[in-house]
Design brief:
heterodimer, A: alpha+beta, 4-stranded mixed beta sheet, elongated, B: mainly beta, Rossmann fold, Neuraminidase, 2 domains, 4-stranded antiparallel beta sheet
């Protein structure tokens, strides 16, 4: 992604250099001493040569690239907001007030990005046992899923999956790590 | 089971048919181990040095067989192996038969059993006698023994000995399926309890969890966690192939065989994780238990009459029991606030489960007949995922007592846990199967 952005901006820089070279300064006539006044007809002149076929293609590509980048930026902003996690108490799948706010923001984005689909992933800390945690992760993912539907997101655009105690964010064996790991993650899917 | 080995057993039966009077000789006074406790006792056994019975030098495989026999026997918690050096006068035998053994120093040293092994070329005869009275407990011969079949001979001998002492069959031939951590995920493996025949079952990627064996030992069912959904995985031991099936709701947790061909599994078809029964085409037939809360981890007795499971319906995870025929559900655990991982004994009398304590999870045994509860394991670390062996005597579980999770064996009586050799990487979620007749 970064690489694409970088090469995109490189193209832009090159384009502006090219265009800049084509622009000439306007010249006005000056009268030498002793010379009769000659009416100088000043005409608006387009010094820039009309873009050749190739240049037009470059221009079109530039525009396409620009709008693509704009869409990309928008998508990235949306993905970033979508990526905000929510967290849970031990053995609980209740949404906190904070979690509800985070989900409201996501619902807003989902509405502004009608093509976006999202996967909600439920996770647990390692203290419980695997099978119960898989079910608890499902409950956590479903809690977010149901709240998003309540906020008007179409259920077809959402899906859930539980990873139980797999894929911990923090492998530590302490309350900070556990609190970090009891979470829902949100992922944009195509 | 290889053809060679089948031939071996055939030969064994022939060779000793003449002298085998074990069935009739099992008199009321015979030594048995009551594995139903509380009469369980420690049995002392001496394994005599193996010898050549045809006048030649001892066979080159004698040392291998001795080592493998001792490895197997060390898994039997009621058996104590005594060194020959504890006997007055050293080795009290001149041969491998009862008439060749002086049982007196054995009795004096309080040895209950004595094992002899005699080689004649590539054939070995193994016998175990009671020191009191000299009755032969087992006697078998194995022909065409090679370095490769030595471990199998040891397993057969020890299975027969265990059966003779406890009446339980096939312990050393009953594979344990388990989950092993791989580089980026978890895969299903299987191994014999004595650490032999370790084999990777799945190569599916993602997380493959919660294996359970079909009652005939042919299939392993498990749940597969992919990036976007869970699927039900089914391994066929006959073809070695694994197939996957997806369900509505994307959630597939803790599948277990109810009886041959029928699988119970937690699915989320209506918005809560409930336990469903699947038919042979793996289509959900009906919910077995449903509640507003989590219902997970079904475990059946051999007859398929009862199902233990975990439910969060009372606000915390507790163990419950469903009577299949009547649909009656009773709560099993009332102590502790986190009881999970139930496993019913094959006879349906006991439930083992893990209970969260201040020191971590511990394995407990609940007697459904009396309601009595007993702690079987004491950590350190966390003891989880208990699973009864097919005999209802051994209990496998996973534990972090030595750091990373590994599989251990204890018994229904809480004997000192022995670690199962599962190779490299952490190991979880043991499930015990029966030896499949076809492989």
């Amino acid at each position: 992604m970064k690489l694409r952005l970088l090469s995109g901006s490189l193209v832009l820089v090159c384009l502006s250099l090219l265009l800049g070279a084509g622009c000439a300064k306007k010249r006005t006539g000056t009268m030498p001493t002793g010379a009769s006044k000659v009416e100088v007809v000043e005409e608006e002149r387009q010094w820039q040569t009309p873009p050749a076929k190739e240049d037009r293609a470059i221009e079109e590509r530039r525009l396409a690239e620009e709008s693509r980048l704009a869409r990309e930026r928008e998508r990235q902003a949306a993905e970033k907001a979508v990526a905000d996690m929510i967290h849970f108490s031990f053995d609980s799948y209740e949404l906190t007030a904070e979690s509800r706010e985070v989900l409201q923001a996501k619902a807003g984005i989902m509405k502004s990005q009608p093509a976006m689909r999202m996967v909600v992933e439920g996770y647990c800390d390692e203290r419980g046992t695997e099978e119960y945690n898989l079910a608890l992760g499902e409950r956590r993912a479903r809690a977010a899923y149901e709240f998003l539907i309540l906020l008007g997101v179409a259920p077809e655009r959402l899906s859930i999956v539980s990873f139980g105690e797999e894929r911990p964010l923090d492998p530590g064996n302490n309350e900070t790590a556990w609190a970090m790991n009891r979470r829902d993650e949100f992922r944009v899917s195509e | 089971m290889s053809k060679t080995f089948a031939r071996l057993i055939g030969a064994a039966c022939l060779v000793l048919a003449g002298i085998s009077f074990f069935g009739q000789a099992r008199a009321s006074g015979a030594l048995t181990v009551d594995i139903h406790g509380p009469g369980q006792r420690t049995v002392n056994m001496v394994v005599l040095p193996q010898r050549a019975v045809d006048g030649r030098q001892a066979a080159p495989l004698a040392a291998d067989l001795d080592r493998e026999l001792r490895r197997d026997l060390s898994l039997l918690p009621f058996l104590r192996l005594m060194p020959v050096s504890e006997l007055l006068g050293g080795d009290p035998s001149k041969g491998v038969e009862a008439s060749d053994i002086d049982f007196k120093p054995l009795s004096l040293a309080r040895a209950d059993l004595v094992m002899t092994a005699g080689w004649s070329g590539d054939e070995v005869q193994v016998r175990v006698f009671e020191t009191f009275g000299g009755r032969r407990v087992i006697g078998k011969a194995y022909a065409e023994v090679t370095a490769k079949t030595v471990p199998r001979v040891a397993d057969r001998v020890c299975s027969l000995l265990l059966e003779a002492l406890t009446g339980k069959k096939g312990f050393f031939e009953s594979p344990i399926a388990f989950v092993r951590k791989t580089g980026s995920g978890k895969e299903i493996y299987k191994v014999l309890p004595q650490g032999r025949d370790l084999e990777q079952v799945t190569r599916a990627g993602g997380y493959n969890l919660g294996p359970d064996w079909s009652k005939d030992g042919r299939y392993i069912v498990f749940s597969h966690l992919g990036d976007d959904r869970h699927t039900l995985g089914l391994w066929d031991g006959r073809s070695g192939e694994v197939s996957f099936k997806a369900f509505a709701g994307n959630t597939v947790i803790s599948p277990a065989f109810a009886s041959d061909g029928e699988i119970a599994v937690t699915l989320d078809l209506t918005g809560a994780p409930d336990i469903y029964l699947l038919d042979r085409r793996l289509e959900p037939v009906k919910p077995l238990v449903r509640s507003w809360a989590i219902d997970v981890s079904p475990s059946f007795d051999r007859a398929g009459r009862k199902m233990a499971f975990t439910s969060g319906r009372v606000g915390s995870p507790q163990i419950f029991l469903l009577e299949i025929e009547t649909g009656l559900i009773q709560r099993v655990t009332f102590e502790g606030s986190y009881n999970t991982n139930p496993c019913l004994s094959p006879d349906g009398r006991y439930v083992v489960f893990s209970r969260s304590t201040n020191g971590g999870h511990r394995i407990f045994l609940h007697d459904l007949a009396t309601g009595a509860e007993r702690q079987l394991t004491f950590g350190p670390g966390s003891d989880e995922d208990p699973a009864f062996g097919p005999d209802g005597y051994f209990v496998a579980f996973s534990s972090s007592r030595e750091g990373g999770y590994k599989i251990y064996l204890t018994t229904r009586h809480g004997d000192d846990p022995v670690r199962v050799d599962t190779g490299r990487g952490q190991a979880f979620a043991p499930a015990w199967g029966v030896a499949a007749p076809d492989h």
